[in-house]
Amino acid sequence: xxxxxxxxxxxxxxxxxxxxxxxxxxxxxxxxxxxxxxxxxxxxxxxxxxxxxxxxxxxxxxxxxxxxxxxxxxxxxxxxx
Length: 81
Description:
By secondary structure, the protein is of the alpha+beta class. It has one domain (3-77): 2-Layer Sandwich (Alpha-Beta Plaits). It contains 3 helices and 4 strands; from the N terminus they run βαβαββα. Strands 1-2-4-3 form a 4-stranded antiparallel β-sheet. A hairpin with a 2-residue loop joins strand 3 (47-55) and strand 4 (58-65). The relative contact order is 0.25.
């Protein structure tokens, strides 16, 4: 599984509310294309952009969603908010 679990830090919640971005911890070997494909399939949404970074040995994916799909809806669905 490429997508492991959502990040629920204060900054991640702020990104959901202000920038329509949602943050997940992903598999360290996953590529952006794999993350995008699985995210779109799993949540049935369209993504605009994916940024990845490695912090503390974990790979973090910040997924920017298209305007027609609010990130807060996905966060609510998975119990983040």
